[in-house]
Design brief:
Blueprint lengths: L3 H22 L7 H23 L12 E2 L2 E2 L3 H4 L1 E2 L11 H10 L23 H12 L3 E5 L2 H12 L5 E5 L4 H9 L3 E5 L9 H15 L5 E5 L11 H11 L3 E4 L11 H4 L3 E5 H4 L7 E5 L4 H4 L29 H16 L3 H15 L6 E2 L9 E5 L4 H5 L7 H9 L2 E2 L8 E5 L5 H17 L6
GO biological process, one term: translation
Subunit structure: Homodimer. Interacts with SepRS.
Catalytic activity: O-phospho-L-seryl-tRNA(Cys) + hydrogen sulfide + H(+) = L-cysteinyl-tRNA(Cys) + phosphate
């Protein structure tokens, strides 16, 4: 059953948006009598909805028809549930980001005061130019740019540095977008094998460099390694790998899709020539959004500006950056990142606390006999791969709902994000949950186990 107060909160917000649309359709001189009447009608609805919110408990009274936006259902996952989805939790918008979306959702809203040289990172109102400088300081990189997702940052670097037929070293746990960036350039991926602990080491990377050198007669054009991978959430030796890259004179790209925005990241301390982050994955920003930090050594290549001239018109656009296709994040996407940034800068200081909460939950989780953590233990990250083949899956084998019983049991307790029907190996992420929610989550897993006769140590 839907939470009526949550639903009516959305109804009130949408009614206010209807009022806003009336102002948008009106003349600067003021509203017509008909428009004034529509405003009064919408505000009456707002007052009615607020009254219902104030009046009762979460699920009292007759539930109204579920609110929709045209054919779209409203998304109430974050308001009604504890969400442990592996890739969603650090992308939850802050209240400031949600307000920025309301104000700057129009397509080219960042361009209201765009003046020469007509480039995104030079806009001063809103303070996009200052944000770029602040972002570079946050990453401890020489320069920074925003991109439409981490994948576009990979693409920009690979496009600038890698030629057709070159080799690019990635982790054997690398994200598919790294592969695509290399493939698009006509280059070849060479994977560093993980060890028995599912970790990629500096020694293994050095061995791969030597292997590529023997096979191709030249060094790889680039090394791209994830700090924490998306499959296990394990930490890889990026500091050691950066040293290997430096010894061979190979540029090193640090993939911080699961760190930039939640954990401290220092490009110079790491020894990274490039730092890539994901706005929608780890910086409380609207998708698609990402960031790219660049060292001064490689900025002339990766941030090069166009030199092309039209043969008929003789037009040239020399200030536009080629790899970024000119401007990148426009409108609410960028403004959401900027609005969340003060919170993001503070929350990275509390990363150790987030990891402690994750470990607390997983200690409780492992009390259910047969439940295992497949990621490195104890955890160094809040993203974790688990194995419940010997616990919750034993129930699924004979349950009439098969693996879906587990998702339903969790949902009844207000928990979502576990892949529906998964009871063998699956991933979860506890980032951003309060201690109160962590303890509630822990008890919910134990309660489901006890209900279905599983041993709890």
């Amino acid at each position: 059953m839907a939470n009526i107060r949550v639903q009516r909160t959305f109804d009130a917000l949408f009614a206010l948006e209807d009022v806003r649309e009336i102002f948008r359709q009106s003349l600067p001189s003021g509203l017509t009598p008909e428009q004034e009447q529509k405003v009064r009608e919408s505000l009456a609805k707002v007052r009615e909805y607020i009254g219902e919110i104030e009046a009762g408990g979460a699920n009292t009274g007759t539930c109204p028809p579920k609110t929709r936006i045209g054919s779209l259902e409203i998304r109430t996952r974050e308001e009604e549930y504890i969400n442990i989805h592996p890739i969603q939790v650090a992308g939850r918008l802050t209240p400031e980001a949600r307000k920025a979306i309301i104000a700057y959702g129009d397509g080219y809203s960042t361009c209201d005061y765009c003046r020469k040289p007509f480039r995104l990172d030079r806009i001063t109102r809103p303070g996009i130019e200052d944000f770029h400088a602040e972002l570079a300081r946050f990453l401890n990189a020489d320069q920074a740019r925003v991109t439409p997702g981490a994948r576009r940052a990979f693409q920009a670097v690979v496009s600038a540095l890698v030629e057709k037929g070159d080799s690019v070293i990635v982790s054997s746990l690398a994200h598919y977008t790294e592969f695509l960036a290399v493939e698009q350039a006509g280059a070849i991926v060479k994977e560093v094998p993980k060890n028995e602990k599912n970790i990629v080491t500096a020694d293994a990377t050095a061995e791969k460099v030597e292997e590529v050198k023997r096979e191709t007669g030249k060094l790889p054009a680039l090394i791209m390694i994830d700090h924490f991978d998306y499959m296990f959430g394990n930490e890889h030796d990026v500091y050691g790998i950066a040293k290997v890259a430096k010894q061979y004179g190979i540029p090193f790209l640090y993939n911080g899709a699961y760190t930039v925005g939640i954990a401290p990241v220092d490009a110079k301390k790491i020894g990274a020539d490039f730092v890539v982050g994901s706005g929608h994955k780890s910086m409380a920003s609207v998708a698609p959004s990402g960031v790219l930090g660049v060292s001064n050594e490689y900025a002339p290549k990766v941030l090069r500006t166009t030199q092309m001239v039209g043969d008929v018109t003789k037009r040239k656009f020399g200030i536009k950056e080629v790899e970024n296709l000119g401007c990148t994040l426009m409108g609410g996407t960028l403004l959401s990142m900027m609005a969340s940034f003060p919170t993001v800068k503070e929350r990275v200081k509390r990363w150790d606390e987030e990891v402690r909460k994750s470990n607390y939950f997983l200690e409780q989780f492992q009390r259910v006999e047969g439940s295992k953590v497949l990621s490195e233990w104890p955890r160094k990250h809040t993203l974790t791969k688990v194995d419940t083949t010997g616990s919750y899956d034993t129930v699924a084998r004979t349950h009439k709902r098969r693996g879906f019983y587990f998702s339903e049991e969790l949902a009844e307790r207000g928990i979502v994000g576990e892949f529906a029907g998964a009871t063998k190996t699956w991933k979860l992420n506890t980032y951003g949950l309060s201690w109160e929610k962590i303890k509630y989550l822990s008890e919910a897993f134990l309660d489901i186990a006890r209900k279905h006769g599983l041993n709890v140590n």
